[in-house]
Amino acid sequence: MRIFLAIISILAISSCGSKDKAHESKMIFKYNESAGIQSFDPAYAKDQSSIWFCNQVFNSLVQLDSNLSIQASIAQYWEISENALVYTFTIDTTISFHQNDFFESRNLTVDDVVYSLERLINPSTASPGAWVLANISDNGIQAINDNTIQIQLEKSNPAFLGLLSMQYCSVLPKEAESIPDFFENPVGTGAFHFQYHKRNVKLVLRKNERYFERDGQGQRLPYLDAVSISFIPDKQTAFLEFIKGDLDFLSGIDASYKDELLTKTGELNDKYKGKIQFSKQDYLNTEYLGFLLDENQTNEALKSPKVRQALNIAFDKKSMMKYLRNGIGTPADGGIIPRGLSGNLRESSFNYNPDKALKLLEEAGYPNAEGIPEIQINTTSSYVDLCEYIQHAWKEIGIQVSIEVSPPSTHRQQVAQTQLSVFRASWIADYPDAENYLSLFYSANHCPNGPNYTHFSNTQFDAFYEQSMNSTDLEFRASLYQQMDSIIMSEGAIIPLYYDNVLRFTQNGISGLGSNALNLLDLKRVRIIYND
C-alpha cells in the first residue's frame, strides 16, 4: 500500500508540469541535469550534478553560506585547539533521518558521524574524496560522549573546516551499507528526502517536514514542497523547455543557445528582459589546458617550459571570451587561482604576444616553430569551439594542431590515468581557499593518489605548499600562494584559459535562490509564485 501511495504521489507531482491551479497549493521546483546523476552516494559526489543532489538530501558537520563563510549544520558549535590539530564538535542529536520503505526514521547520533567520516577514508569505499580527510591521524575520529566528537589532525590545515563542508563529508545512518539498495533509495537529514527515480527520465525529492533549520522568523525550512529533476541530455532541448516555462532554472550557458540569450557583452538580450531573471557573478572555476609533465609525455617539444610558455601567449584570450563566450568569464592572464581568492596573480606577463611567443620558441630550439611535432588537444564536445580557436591561433605561428573529442566520462578517465599529452580541464573549488587549486600541483598528490593530473613536481613549490599548510596567518599564506602560482606559470605547467562566471536564469516567480562563488545549489529558501 505504501508503494502504491508513493506512485500516486509522484503522478500528482508530475501532473503539475504546467502552470495551472494545482500550483496554488504546491511549490515544485524543476530543473534539468543533462549529464545525469552518476551516484546518490555522497562518497562519490565529485561532479556538480551529484554535489547538487547531495546538498538537498544530506547534511555535513558544517555548511557554507552565500558568502562562503562557515556556518553550523549538524554540528551546533565547535572548538579548535591552540595548535590547530584538534577539532571538537558538539552534535545536534535532535536531528532526524528521513524515513522510507527500507529505513525507519530515528535521531542522528555521534556514531553516525564517526561512521560516515571513517567510511570516506576507508580504502574499501574507494571514494575520490578520501583526500579530504587524508590529514587525519590514525584513529583520529572519536566519539567523546553522546553528543561530542573529536577529530585529530596530523598537521594543521587552515582550510580544514571548509573541507568538512564538502558533500563528501555528508552524514549517513551507520546502518547504510547493511541495508539492501540503500544507495538506490538514500536516506539523509537534508531539507528534501528521496522519493522517486526513473533512470535517465526523472528524479523527485519531497520536502522534509521535520527538517531542523528555520528562517529568521522561526518558520521551518524548506518552503518548497518538492524538487523535480529531469534528465534531458540535449542542452538545446532543455533550454527550450526552460523558455516554455516547463523548467524553473537554468545554470550556465551552452554554445547552442548563448547568442539567443546573451549579447556579446554578456548581458541578457532585450527580448527576454522582464520575462526571465538573470544573475552573474565571479565563479571559483578556472578553465585551462594542462600538459603532461612526466616521462609519459610523447611530444618532445612540450617537455620545454619555454615552448609551453610560448603557447600560453600565442592566442588572444580577450577576443576568445568576447566572440566565443559572449563576455562570460574573465580572460585568464594570471595563474590557476581565480579572481575572488587570496593569492590570485593580479599582474601577469602572460598577455597575448605572438612576437614574444616566436622568440621563446627560438630560445627553446624551434625557430619559427620548425621541428615541433603536431600537438593534439584532447577535449569534450562542449569546448570544441575554444580548442578550434586556439588551433587556428597556434597555426598562425607555424604550429600544427589536431583536436581529439571524447565523451566527458572517457575524457575524465584518460586525464586521471595520465594518458593525454595536452588536455582541456577545469577546476571548480570545493572550498573557498586557494590551497584547493594549488593542491593540483603538489608532488604528493600525483594521480591516482590525488588531483595532480599533470604530474607537476617542483621542490620549491612543495616547500611553499607545506609552509602554507602550517600557518594560520592569512597574509603570509596569500604571499606563499602567489609565489606558488608564479612557479606554476614560469614552468608552463598549464595554460589558464578563463576564470568563469556563475550564470543563473530563473522564471520570474522564483525567489530566494541566490547565488554563490561555488555555484552550489541551495533550495532551502526558494519560493515560487505562480501567475495565472
Give a concise summary.
The protein is α+β, with helices and mostly antiparallel strands. 25% of the residues lie in helices and 21% in strands. Strands 11, 12, 13, 14, 15, 16 and 17 form a seven-stranded mixed β-sheet that branches. It has a four-stranded mixed β-sheet with strand order 1-10-9-8, with helices on one face. A four-stranded antiparallel β-sheet has the order 4-5-7-6, with helices on one face.
What does this entry look like structurally?
The protein has 532 residues and is of the alpha+beta class. Among the domains are: 36-188, Dipeptide-binding Protein, domain 1 (Alpha-Beta Complex); 283-501, Dipeptide-binding Protein, domain 3 (Roll). It is built from 14 helices and 19 strands. It has helices at residues 2-14, 48-57, 110-121, 160-164, 235-244, 258-261, 305-312, 317-324, 354-363, 384-396, 408-416, 435-438, 459-469, 474-490, and strands at residues 28-32, 62-64, 70-72, 75-80, 86-91, 136-145, 148-153, 192-198, 202-207, 226-230, 249-251, 276-291, 330-331, 375-379, 401-405, 422-428, 494-507, 510-511, 527-528. Strands 11, 12, 13, 14, 15, 16 and 17 form a seven-stranded mixed beta sheet that branches. α10 (384-396) links the parallel β14 and β15. α13 runs antiparallel to α14 (474-490). The protein is globular, with a radius of gyration of 24 Å. Mean pLDDT is 91; it is low at 1-24.
Topology:
Layout: H1 2-14, E1 28-32, H2 48-57, E2 62-64, E3 70-72, E4 75-80, E5 86-91, H3 110-121, E6 136-145, E7 148-153, H4 160-164, E8 192-198, E9 202-207, E10 226-230, H5 235-244, E11 249-251, H6 258-261, E12 276-291, H7 305-312, H8 317-324, E13 330-331, H9 354-363, E14 375-379, H10 384-396, E15 401-405, H11 408-416, E16 422-428, H12 435-438, H13 459-469, H14 474-490, E17 494-507, E18 510-511, E19 527-528
Parallel strand pairs: 1-10, 14-15, 14-16
Antiparallel strand pairs: 2-3, 4-5, 5-7, 6-7, 8-9, 9-10, 11-17, 12-16, 12-17, 13-17, 18-19
Helix pairs in contact: 7-9, 13-14
